[in-house]
Design brief:
about 200 residues, alpha/beta
Length: about 200
């Protein structure tokens, strides 16, 4: 019994040390990335969390750039300066990505559209809008256009997912709730960051 207790104590201590090392690594990596990619725009208060919105240039319609699944507005680093020479361009970080804080609402396509629209209103970026969506953001752009039809002048879908892609190609989006929950719980300890780095 004593040996079992000692073994369990040792295993628990090792887990604590690994968690502490992972947390430290994640904090240091975050600090390094924020130094490398400083805040570009403004943090728009949406009552409960803040959304990072970066707008440049002038002219209508305002071009709204939306990055792929886990990408920040830095994805548009080479695009926005060129487009902004002749028109207003806004890029942003979706909740929980880049400098945007986590939203208290579930991140459904409808909520994502509503939150972006609210941020634009708070920041004084008026319609009409030209929505640009890459990958999964193409679906968010379609939802935005559907919800605010009279404010959208056009859509640009860059390598976008199809609205029925989940149904037609279920293997493209495997549903592993246990895995996703595990990643969410271990993210503060650097696990998700390490896995993402391993995929590059």
């Amino acid at each position: 019994m004593r040996k079992l207790r000692v073994s369990l104590t040792g295993a628990f201590t090792v887990l604590i040390l690994i968690a502490a090392a992972g947390y430290s690594y994640d904090r240091l990596a975050t600090s390094h990335e924020r130094a490398r990619y400083p805040l570009k725009g403004q943090l728009v208060d949406l009552g409960g969390f803040r959304l990072h919105l970066y707008c440049t240039g002038a002219g209508k319609p305002a071009v709204l750039l939306d990055a792929g699944a886990f990408d920040s507005l830095e994805q548009w680093d080479l695009v926005q300066p060129g487009v902004t020479k002749c028109i207003q361009v806004c890029s942003y970080d979706r909740p929980g990505v880049g400098y945007s804080e986590v939203s208290p609402k579930p991140q459904t396509s409808s909520n994502i559209a509503e939150e972006l629209h609210a941020a634009l209103m708070r920041a004084g970026i008026s319609s009409p809008y030209l929505r640009v969506g890459h990958s999964i953001a193409g679906f968010y752009a379609l939802m935005f256009a559907s919800r605010f039809r009279d404010q959208v002048a056009g859509l640009v879908l860059e390598d976008s997912v199809h609205p029925h892609e989940l149904k037609e190609f279920p293997t493209h989006f495997p549903n592993h709730p246990v895995l996703f929950t595990a990643l969410r719980l271990t993210a503060p300890f650097g696990v998700a960051r390490l896995l993402h780095m391993g995929c590059r």
